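Sample intake sheet
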Amino acid sequence: MPLEAIAINSLDAPLIKKPTRENELAERLEALYDTDDSQPDGADVLAIIEQGFKRGQTLYVGMFNDKPIAAVACFDDGQTDAKRLQYLTVHLQNRGRAIDAKFIKLVYDAEVKKGVRAFVAVDAEIHRIMTEYELLRVKD
């Protein structure tokens, strides 16, 4: 099964087909962030994301073989029509395999289909990926 980027608006979204416990998705996402030294503590990131959900914001989860292996927040910056991408994390065993670039491209494509025409890459790694693949501006 290929990598999928799935937009969610709740940490209890039914992404895991056969969860073994309640709140499994949230626990797995928190663990992803906890193992990523380039991001804040997992509980802190999830608290920010949950606040974003209350304002209609989105979290994209990268699913592979029924497991969340990546995540990135996609927030409306509130000032322009741009979407702000931040808090990119990839599972420790998948780092250095270009999963991050493929995942960002999937998120980009999904947002462009929704009509988004501009992006702001908040994290340095997202900026590097989007610059390398010329994704910071959508051509009309």
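Comment: The chain has a mean pLDDT of 91. The longest helix spans residues 99-113.
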